[in-house]
Structures are given as structure tokens and as C-alpha cells.
Amino acid sequence: MESVFAPVRSQTAFEETVDRLGTAIKLGLLPAGERLPAERDLCQKLGIARSTLRQALTALGQSGYLHAVRGRGGGTFVVDQPPRADRPDDDVTLTTWHEICDERLAIEIGVAVLAAARATAAQLRGLDGLVLALDDCVDDFPAYRQLDVRFHVGLAEATGSARLVASMTHCQGAMSDLIHHIAHPPEVLTHANAQHARLLAAIRGNDVTSTVQTITEHVHGTEHILAGLLPR
Q: Beta strands of 10-145 (E only): which ranges?
């Protein structure tokens, strides 16, 4: 049980907290009806800020894993019946999801680095517009996902490489098949889009180090969310 509440890394603290707690619930390490430690204690154990913890608890609540009880004897509790996503008839996607994320990481890093060197001002303005539009549809996942794909394909288009555009399109298709099996809390989508904005700032500044760091955090963040919410 102590491993559930061991400190998480600061760079992906939100996503790792969702991963850690979601996985613990699915494995029964945090059983149905279990009351989580108080926020102050959880923050100290996990080594994260209270705002980060509350984001993660909100995401898990929106996903159907936790619920809050107000008043005396209240707190945050594991739901009696955690959600179960339906497995497809062919569950190859679910059994190879780590490989899909690895492929995505390789493509996204390469695309982001080249975009930092080649993106035009007009292309960056277009991507800025997508980030603003994404902020407006965090409560509508189908609309959000459509714009999200356009954002990542738009990054590939900024490289000037038709091959990378094709690779990114294929990669995003595989990711769409994968994330179809999990919930999409607005808290998670808002956090992911904030990373989009930071990525564009790094690309616009031709800061390759920050570009690589930000896109890596973005992809690893999605991986942690999948680990926490995908069916076992």
C-alpha cells in the first residue's frame, strides 16, 4: 500500500498521480469504499502541490473512480463499482499500447524539433488558433479530439515533410483507437492543451531543449493517463 503513495516525479506529477491512483483502484490496492488520506497527507506522501492533487482527484472523479462526500465523516472515496471499459473483439490495440506510445514519442519528438527550425509565422498562428479552440471544447471530447489531431498533424505539416505528415496521421489514428477505451475528463484535456501552448512557445523561440522536454512530457503524460484508466 505504501508504494501507492510514494513520491511522484515533478515533471509529470498530474498524469502520474492519475496513473498511480487509477491503477491502484483497478488492482484492488485501493478497494471499493476506501477513503483516501486527507489532502494534506496525500500531498506530503506524493511530494506534489495541493493544486496538482486536486486536478488528479477531479480527473479520477470525472472518470468514475472516485467520489467526494461532504460534511462530517466526508472525504474522497473509491467508488463501490469502478467503471469497466468494454474490450474490443480484437484487443491487439490494448495489448500493444506501450508500443503505440513508443512509436508516437519517436515521431512527435522528431516533428517538434524540425518544426522549431522550419515553422513559418503563419503556420504558428494557425496552431495558436487551434489551442484557443481546444480550450473551448474540453467538455466535448469528439470535438476536442478532432482539433487535437489537427494540431499534431499541423506540427508535422510545419516540417515541410510529406512523409512525416503521413507518419503523424498514422500515429494519431492508432492513438484514437487506443484512447477510445478510456474516459476523457475535462481536467485531463485542459492540462494537455496547456502543454500544447507551452510547446508552441518553445517552438516559436527556436528552443530545441524546451521543445523536446515539453513534447516528451506531453506524450508521457498521455501514457500515464492510459496506464491509469485503460481496462486491464
A: 66-69, 75-78
State how far the Cα of 183 lies from the Cα of 5, in Å rounded to an integer: 23
Going from the C-alpha of 199 to that of each of 2, 21, 24, 207, the distances in angstroms are 35, 27, 31, 10
- Asked whether residue 84 carries a pLDDT value surpassing 80, the answer given is no
Contact 137, 144 (CB under 8 A): yes
Set out the domains of the chain in order of their start, with CATH numbers.
Answer: 2-78 (1.10.10.10), 92-227 (1.20.120.530)
CA dihedral 34, 189, 103, 112 (to 10 degrees): -140
Whole-structure pTM value? 0.78
CA distance 45 to 5: 6
C-alpha cell at 117: 527550425
Residue type, 28: G
* C-alpha–C-alpha distance, residues 218 and 214, integer Å: 6
